[in-house]
Amino acid sequence: MLKLIKLELKKNKFNGSWLGILIANLCIMGLVALMYFDPETLENELVFIDFADAFSAIDTFVRATFIIYASVLIAKFVIEEYKNKTMSLMFSYPISRKKLIAAKLTIIFTWTFLTITLSNLVISGVLVLVNNYFGYIPGSLEMDTVINYVLKMLLNTVSAAGLSLIPLFFGMWKKSVPGTIVSAVLIVSIFSSSSGGFSLYSIIAVPIILAAIGILVAYLSIRNVDKVDLI
Amino acid sequence: MTAILKTYRLGKTINGKDLVSGLNMSINKGEIYGFLGPNGAGKTTVMKMITSILKPTEGEIELFGKPLQPNSIELLKRMGSIIEYPIFYERLTAQENMELHCEYMGYYNKKAINEVLEMVQLTNIDSKPVKNFSLGMKQRLGIARAIVTKPELLLLDEPINGLDPVGIREMRSLFTMLTKQYGITLLISSHILGEIEHIADTVGVINHGKMIKEVSMDSVRQSNSEYVEISTREVKKAAYILTDRLNVSNIKVIGDEAIRVYDMSIPQSELIKTLTMADVPVNSIVQKQHSLEDYFIEMLNGGGLSA
């Protein structure tokens, strides 16, 4: 399985998209900075009530970004192989088709998990650092807040990594790259948008169910792959 | 001789259309099997079923003496194939494509890659990505990839498409070399008869998804391969005279102006003399070879009528 993953990475010349991750991180930092330094809200009310609030905003941005990014990877690793018919080449190898697809999905799941975790840590770190000089966020950073944040973020991230596989279902339907990416955007805009500090994601059951659906979709896409025609 | 591939009443229906039905074929070990049929006859569908890219809706395929099932992936290790047109990872170079193929096939002999690239005369390609290759080059690379692991059974679907005449000749000798030196069994499909005629040991003719005939080339060559064609305006009279006076039974009237005599024991002078004496004007008399092409078209027409 590890070998299959390595071959997949080699085949797609996938180096982890470091540049993409960097640009995405810079953009999120820019957005957070816009909220942080907004002169109007600075006078009237605070954008971030406390650190927990700021962290959860960052988490939302990061998750939304990388779930969509993951759909691009699904398109690259899975959908395009079907479209370019290279899948018929893959399926002519003496390797179980389930393992082939599983290797691809493992890459996407792991990549999403890692990028969300790292980006969260980096951007939150930068925020804490910046706040040391400006101090707009009231209160000090307690150890409790950090631990709480990390735990919550890890749960959210596992769920996001699962969730990021849902677009596979829509993409496989018509083997369409736009379908994959658009469905990811829709999923993100439904579940990550918040109004007045409330988002669907903050109900604890929702991320868990979504992650389960994502993993179910992955399973379903693998389950019959040995028995169906490749057209 | 042992059969390396057998199909029993193989059939495939997609969206209610019978692409292949009731197809029995049998390929012996070490032979070149020519798979002939017009476009859309079902050749590719059959080959896809053999590589289990498509699953049969009826019947069974037996490969290397074992039934082919959805999970029999080990059998795939013993096959090499090009189906339809060669597919590559276009952004990678030829070398990288070959390396990936070997890794996935579980074949680790780095020298083999350069050997086969030379065999198909594909050198000086350096670091060009495959997307910049011409169709002929891709075809060569596809053949190289299919044979690099020295499979026991090689499936080639229209392998000479896009090759120049020199390339076609090179490939032809490569194919014969593969069977002779490595004992590889080849299944080559084509709609170009001349191509198959030269190299095949057995020919299977398919049309409308049905196997029309499976014959060994030796028997095709033996049966009625030579004949004398007499062209005359009075074919009916000529036919009568030939059967009546020379006792020739094996003749065939072609259209209004020609007669074919398959009985080669009668000298041409005798034929002319008899016909002229009976006042039948003979315009020309030629000795001809019955090519596989005629044989093939006859079979296709016959098949079309009975279907």
Structure overview:
The complex is a heterodimer of chains A (231) and B (307). By secondary structure, chain A is mostly helical. Chain A has one domain (2-223). Helix content of chain A is 76%, strand content 2%. The longest helix of chain A is centred in the middle third of the chain and has 38 residues, at 97-134. Chain A is elongated, with a radius of gyration of 20 Å. Chain B has helices at residues 43-50, 94-105, 110-119, 135-147, 165-182, 193-199, 217-222, 235-245, 268-277, 292-306, and strands at 3-14, 17-28, 32-36, 58-63, 66-67, 79-82, 153-157, 185-190, 202-207, 210-216, 226-232, 251-254, 258-261, 282-289. The two termini of chain B are 32 Å apart. Chain B folds into two domains: 3-218, Rossmann fold, CATH 3.40.50.300; 226-289, Alpha-Beta Plaits (2-Layer Sandwich), CATH 3.30.70. In chain B, the strands form three sheets. A six-stranded mixed sheet of chain B has the order 6-7-8-3-9-10, sandwiched between helices. Chain B has a four-stranded antiparallel sheet with strand order 2-1-4-5, with helices on one face. Chain B is of the alpha/beta class and 307 residues long. Chain A binds chain B through residues 3, 7, 10-11, 13, 84-86, 88-96, 226-231, and chain B through 14, 51-55, 70-71, 73-77, 79, 81, 83, 87-92, 100, 103-106.
